[in-house]
Write a structure and sequence with these properties.
Helices cover 57% and strands 7% of the residues. It has helices spanning 4-21, 27-42, 67-75, 80-110, 112-124, 126-131, 137-153, 161-178, 185-198, 222-252, 258-268, 282-291, 296-301, 303-314, 319-341, 354-382, 388-428, 430-448, 535-539, 543-548, 570-574, 580-584, and strands at 46-47, 212-214, 217-219, 457-460, 478-481, 492-493, 524-529, 553-562, 587-595. The protein has a five-stranded mixed beta sheet with strand order 5-4-7-9-8. It has a two-stranded antiparallel sheet with strand order 1-6. The protein has a two-stranded antiparallel ribbon with strand order 2-3. The protein is globular, with a radius of gyration of 27 Å.
Length: 608
């Protein structure tokens, strides 16, 4: 564990597995980020209202850095599906580097035990596993928070004060500005307050007066050090803002700054997020138990009490270390409480603080082990009438038993986490498998036709959100929508450029009829087929389902997906429990059909 390279290698393997196992469970990842990237790489894709020049609340600056990597893979002859997983792999490698830096800083700040426990809890947390390779601002912020905290936490070392602070500010600016998610500034605010305070108070808690020495440099006063910190931070922020402004103004074809646009949209349309669902506070409590772990989440919640216990145990020594731990704790709690206060809740919003929760849980565990060790030693001191051999055995047990208990807690967390991840793969792994087969089928059909045809169209209905992106369709193939019960605003195909005016868009999630095409214009259909006992009920009012149940459509391939309606046990769905899950979970077929009623001259779908 001494070597950064070893930890980085371990986390890289972890992220490789996550890249291959994870599915896309958030439609924003597909239509908000993979589709714009596909458009930049291949010239076609689906555009959401957020990317309409009229609103421009999503930044291309978050997508553009992955464009060279995608171009390289495409130039090397990789298929589009390979490029897709290559993008997820590079995201995972960014996560592994940031996590390795984060763990190294924890070792220097809190000790080897905290580093080891944090690593164990990170690897055990399902939410960390799912976010590691996700193409979402919140997932990227998770890596950037770790990188910022690592540089900030290392600033207690000589010659690293200002350089570490500037690096932390840089990663914070990337998270707030480049991802287009300015709300995450709340997580970095406590770090900023600590940086400012460090200009006036040294690591021992004494107020600095007169000349101040930081990073090998001598400043005339604390105010001089603060001025240099603020000037450097402002310069980093300005450079970041100018880069984002240049990228988005070029791609939107107008002067615009999406991070500001999205902040204003949420400020001026305070109830806008209610358009996409409202959840109670218990939603996040349940998700934290599932995603951080039934073990780690409650321990992280108790971290303030553990912090007080650490201060009592240290007796005032290392107060500057506990000050940094308190700052991490405040950052985590402020973010969690902010999200809980909002009506619209999504699990991915918690991604930025998952690593902080794991580190705080590790510190609480280590503190608990110290308390047990101290209590055991006091008990032995009070009853030290035994032989020297027995005394030695008791002293040894006092040092070993608390650590064994901590390891057992991590083992339990790892078991539960692995069960959660395996259940997710078993229940939803059919999505990628089916779409990979769709790619193969369409490629085979286009090569075997022998005649020039228009690009094939894959149609979806109410399950449009399960589309994993155009990376899973052959070059030239397109996605279209059939009116099938969904009443909100659907994405539309990009036109010639990202700055071109699209079909009618709105920011109220109101349905646009121009998005739909007739059944006869579809070459293929992808949808879930309800179980036999639910056919009569589920088929009512679904034209696409009614069509595929006739000889006019041919079933080509199916993959199993969990049927949440019939799988009534939440426990069996959330965790892979031997025998129990198999007996309580039910599955439906997620299928691709070929439209046998397709007429070449009846194409009505929009061209991409």
């Amino acid at each position: 564990m001494e070597s950064f390279d070893f930890v980085h290698l371990l986390l890289s393997v972890y992220c490789l597995v996550a890249c291959l196992v994870n599915h896309i469970d958030d439609t924003d990842e597909t239509f908000g980020y993979f589709e714009p990237l596909h458009f930049l790489l291949y010239g076609n894709g689906m555009q959401t209202w957020e990317y309409s020049p009229e609103f421009a609340i999503r930044t291309y600056a978050f997508v553009l850095p992955l464009w060279p990597w995608g171009c390289l893979l495409d130039w090397l002859g990789c298929s589009k599906i390979t490029v897709f997983f290559g993008i997820k792999l590079i995201l995972g490698q960014c996560f592994s580097w940031a996590a390795a830096r984060f763990l190294g800083s924890l070792r220097r700040l809190c000790g080897r035990e905290v580093q080891l426990l944090t690593l164990g809890l990170l690897l055990s947390a399902p939410g960390v596993f799912f976010s590691a390779t996700s193409f979402l601002p919140s997932a990227a912020c998770s890596s950037l928070v770790m990188a910022a905290v690592a540089n900030w936490a290392d600033c207690g070392h000589p010659h690293r004060q200002l350089s570490g602070y500037f690096a932390a500010i840089f990663f914070g600016c990337l998270a707030v500005v480049v991802t287009g998610w300015p709300f995450v500034a709340v997580v970095f605010a406590p770090l900023g307050v600590h940086m400012v305070a460090s200009c006036f108070v040294d690591s021992t808690g004494e107020v600095l007066e007169g000349e101040v020495e930081k990073g090998g440099c001598v400043y005339r006063s604390s105010w001089h050090a603060l001025l240099l910190l603020l000037a450097g931070g402002a310069g980093i922020l300005l450079l970041t803002v100018l880069c984002v402004l240049a990228v988005d103004s070029a791609l939107y074809g107008q002067l615009t700054f999406p991070p500001l646009n999205i902040a204003l949209y949420n400020a001026l349309h305070g109830s806008g997020d209610e358009l996409y669902g409202v959840e109670p506070t218990s939603y996040y409590l349940k998700n934290l138990l599932l995603m951080v772990g039934l073990v780690a989440a409650p321990i992280a919640a108790a971290s303030p009490a553990a912090l007080m216990a650490r201060l009592l145990l240290l007796g005032g020594r290392g107060a500057h270390i506990e000050g940094k731990v308190l700052t991490i704790c405040v950052a985590m709690y402020v973010w969690v409480l902010l999200l809980m206060s909002r009506p619209h809740k999504e699990e991915r919003f918690m991604y930025p603080v998952y690593p902080l929760m794991c580190s705080l849980a590790a510190m609480a565990l280590e503190t608990g082990a110290r308390i047990l060790e101290r209590a055991c030693a006091l008990r032995n001191a009070a009853t030290s009438t035994l032989s020297s051999r027995k005394d030695l055995a008791q002293v040894t047990s006092c040092g070993v038993l608390p650590r064994v208990l901590a390891v057992l807690v991590c083992g339990l967390a790892a078991t539960l986490g692995a069960s959660r991840v395996f259940a997710s793969y078993r229940n939803y792994g059919g999505y990628f498998k089916l779409w990979a087969e769709v790619h193969s089928i369409m490629t085979r059909d286009s090569h075997g036709s022998g005649t020039a045809q228009l690009p094939p169209t894959v149609c979806m209905g109410g399950e449009w959100y399960t589309f994993p992106s155009h990376f899973f369709l052959p070059t030239g193939a397109q996605l279209a929508f059939v009116q099938d019960g969904f009443g909100g605003l659907l994405p539309q195909p990009y036109v010639e450029t990202s700055a071109a005016p699209p079909q009618p868009m709105n920011d109220r999630n109101e349905e646009e009829p121009l998005r739909y095409v007739p059944l006869g214009s579809c070459d293929y259909f992808v949808l879930s087929v309800p179980a036999a006992e639910d056919e009569a009920c589920d088929g009512t009012g679904s034209p696409i389902l009614a069509h595929v149940r006739t000889p006019r459509a041919s079933r080509l391939h199916c993959e199993p997906l969990i049927d949440a309606k019939r799988s009534t046990s939440a426990l069996s769905r959330a965790f892979a429990i031997p025998h129990y899950s198999a007996g309580h979970n039910h599955f439906i077929d997620y299928c691709v059909f070929k439209n046998m009623d397709r007429q070449p001259d009846r194409r009505a779908g929009p061209a991409i």
